Inverse folding.
């Protein structure tokens, strides 16, 4: 994935553009803390994180980040309602056991949520599967089927259908190509689902 001049991936830079300065933020599945440290240093956010891997937690703590070890499927219930201005789930939703429940928890503990994920409806993935009869390996889906952490493959349209079912609204959206560049597409349009390699959505509760 191509990096910006700021030294982070393009998709993370676009995600960061959706974050309000000074917000109280929880980044779930924060990995080595790259995005969280960027938001702390560039946006002045109150940065908190949750990461399943102890190696990731150690990397975050080494950067002075407040990160705890936890599992999005089981540990979000411990947070009180509206505890954060914003909850981030970047490239992690498809690796959870119960994406619908996790998304519901995001809406409960945050005033808004940003979710990003690879689009398994991308034309390259469809063509690869149709012509080769094997699960695709692409820049945004880089691992073989037997080693990927992804257990719930979804398309952009699948995700939007779940958002609607949960009674959430889309406040902002970005459809990206495989290099993380933003495409000027309507997130609910057919082209977004066909040529978008990944997507970023900022969600809010209705009412």
């Amino acid at each position: 994935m191509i990096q910006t001049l700021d030294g982070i991936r393009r998709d993370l830079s676009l995600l960061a553009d959706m974050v309000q300065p000074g917000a109280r933020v929880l980044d779930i599945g924060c990995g080595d803390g790259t995005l969280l440290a960027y938001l702390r240093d560039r946006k002045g956010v109150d940065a908190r994180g949750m990461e399943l891997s102890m190696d990731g937690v150690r990397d975050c703590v080494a950067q002075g980040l407040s990160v705890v070890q936890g599992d999005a499927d089981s540990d979000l219930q411990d947070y009180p309602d509206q505890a954060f201005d914003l909850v981030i789930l970047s490239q992690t939703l498809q690796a959870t056991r119960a994406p619908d429940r996790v998304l519901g928890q995001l809406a409960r503990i945050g005033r808004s949520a940003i979710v990003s994920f690879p689009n398994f409806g991308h034309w390259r993935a469809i063509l690869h599967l149709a012509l080769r009869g094997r699960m695709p390996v692409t820049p945004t889906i880089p691992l073989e089927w037997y080693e990927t952490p992804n257990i719930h493959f979804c398309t952009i349209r699948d995700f939007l259908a779940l958002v609607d079912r949960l009674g959430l609204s889309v406040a902002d959206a970005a459809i990206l190509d495989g290099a993380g560049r933003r495409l000027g597409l309507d997130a609910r349009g057919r082209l977004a689902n066909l040529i978008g390699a990944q997507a970023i959505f900022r969600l809010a509760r209705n009412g």
User: Anything to note?
Assistant: The mean pLDDT is 91. Residues 32 and 207 are 35 Å apart (CA to CA). The chain has one domain: 10-205.
